[in-house]
Amino acid sequence: MRKALMAGFLLAVAPLAGLAAQNWDATFVETPTGHRLGNPDAATKLIAFVSYSCPHCAQFEVQSDAPLRLQYIQPGTVNMEVRNVIRNPLDIAAALAAQCGPENRFWGNHRALLRAQEEWMEVAVNASPAQRARWTTGTFGSRMRAIASDLDFYDLLERRGYSRPELDRCLNDETTARALVAQMEADREQWAISGTPSFVVNGTLQEGVHDWASLRPRLATAGQ
After folding, report:
1. What is the pLDDT of residue 157?
2. Strands 44-50 and 204-205, bridge-based pairing
């Protein structure tokens, strides 16, 4: 009897142990609209609209990364989808670089570009007229490669294991760039997004919420 009870107990707790061991922070999916991290069935679904050249977006990345992933995404209560807001050619080049390669590379690239933003934006602000001309004239691919070269995107992502030819293929992808712009326009039409970062929680735009301090309490109550 005692052995039977113990066996029954082990069978009962086994599913719970498996659930506790699931790390949703390692679940990556490229959706038709962006890139999603976390439990696809999470009660709270967060969409973050991000511009790589936006200083507040870089601040959000630094401030939110650990608490958002450890307290909300990893346990499976929240998933987050990143969508691009394209404000200028730099955003296009950064977005193409971020999503270069398999989907499991995106999130590391995304974080690396935002965390290095202060450095490469300083280069952009102080760019020479000749550099700026290279960013806006010539073929699409030549413009994107010029930005990536001048702002050290190549160096940043080569340290993450990419080769220059691999990055060139991604930066030459005008079809993907047009799709990013089309998705941004659709998002603006649906939610009237006017600033970055902006957030949608469970289908509702969070008015006036543009940083982690304001978003966190919304996530804490969204699943209740």
Report:
1. 98
2. unpaired
122-161 pLDDT, tens digit per residue, is: 999 999 999 999 999 999 999 999 999 999 999 999 999 9
Q: What is the pLDDT of residues 172-201, one digit of tens each?
A: 999 999 999 999 999 999 999 989 999 999
Ramachandran category for residue 98: left, alpha or beta (phi over 0 → left; psi -120 to 50 → alpha): alpha
Q: What is the DSSP string of 92-106?
A: HHHHHHHT-SSHHHH
pTM, to two decimals: 0.89
- What are 81's strand-pairing partners? 36, 47
Q: Where are the domains of the chain?
A: 24-222
CATH fold of 24-222 reads Glutaredoxin (3.40.30)
Q: Other CB atoms closer than 10 Å to residue 104's CB: what's the count?
A: 11
Backbone φ, ψ for residue 201 (5° rounding): -120, 120
CA distance 59 to 17: 36
> Residue 75, exposed/middle/buried by CB under 10 A (0-12, 13-18, 19+)?
middle
**Alpha helices (runs of H) in the chain, residue ranges in sequence order:** 2-21, 55-67, 89-98, 103-115, 117-125, 129-136, 140-150, 153-158, 164-171, 174-191, 212-222
